[in-house]
Amino acid sequence: MLIARNLTKNYSNLPVLKGVDINVSKGEIVTIVGSSGAGKSTLLHILGTLDTPTGGEVWLEDVNITALKGNKLADFRNRNLGFIFQFHHLLPEFSALENVCIPGFIKGAKSNIVKDRAVFLLETLGLKERLEHRPAQLSGGEQQRVAVARALINEPKIVMADEPTGNLDSQNARELHQLFTELSERFQQTFIIVTHNEDLAKMSTRSLTMKDGKIV
Ligand code: ADP
Ligand code: ADP
Q1: What is the CATH number of the domain that holds 143?
Q2: Whole domain around residue 76: which residue ranges?
């Protein structure tokens, strides 16, 4: 589904990625682990079109995503990729349900279809009683689950997550892991996850270790 070939990245002549190759198949949960500064976030951002490589290419199915620019890139990203970060950046003035719906409305999907799916996702994530709550009225674990529902609303081909459990207690982290596994098994949802969490790395279908700009 996703193929990266010979990715390199320099920040003002300093090499941060030194030739990375990755193949990810549909339904896989791939974790990227390794010490701080190894290049994990840089790699994830390039795979997710949030940053451009100095050299190499990334293909998502038949699209060379490293060649996309401007509106085409923004539209492709919103339709095909979902993002989960340690800090979820929910919009404080909107309800949980509205936060989840917004990327669907931006995509231009029919509003009743978006809303039905958002309700389904939030209910599946155990937030049935929280649809109209604003982020400040939700616990940290609940807010992160809203962010997961938002990442899934447009049925992304791949979900990219950067330290998704970094801000959660161990119980909520375990629940998030179970959720990723369930989504992978039930819907063949594909994940690429940067994490320091060893439990999460263990439950992934494949764990890649980065060291000094390379997968080792
Ligand atoms: P990791 O996620 O494994 O901790 P990063 O990808 O965040 O590693 O960073 C890899 C290296 O690239 C680090 O040395 C970091 O300081 C450097 N780096 C990351 N982003 C930038 C940037 N925007 N400008 C300059 N250097 C950067
Ligand atoms: P968790 O362990 O899942 O993170 P908490 O124990 O923090 O949950 O919260 C339990 C419940 O209390 C949550 O369902 C949430 O709705 C409510 N709650 C938590 N924080 C707040 C808050 N700041 N304002 C209002 N309700 C809150």
Answers
A1: 3.40.50.300
A2: 2-215
Q: Find the residues whose C-beta lies inside 6 A of ligand 2.
A: 137-142, 172
ipTM: 0.66
125: confidence class by pLDDT, cuts 50, 70, 90: confident
- Could you give the number of structural domains in the chain? 1
Q: What is the DSSP string of the chain?
A: -EEEEEEEEEETTEEEEEEEEEEE-TT-EEEEE--TTSSHHHHHHHHTTSS--SEEEEEETTEEGGG--HHHHHHHHHHHEEEEESS----TTS-HHHHHHHHHHHHT--HHHHHHHHHHHHHHTT-GGGTT--GGGS-HHHHHHHHHHHHHTT--SEEEEESTTTTS-HHHHHHHHHHHHHHHHHH--EEEEE---HHHHHHSSEEEEEETTEE-
Mutate to test the pocket of ligand 2, among 138, 143, 176 (most ligand atoms within 8 A of CB): 138
Contact between 17 and 11 under an 8 Å Cβ cutoff? The reply is: no
Q: What is the pTM of this model?
A: 0.84
Gap between the Cα atoms of 132 and 95, Å rounded: 5
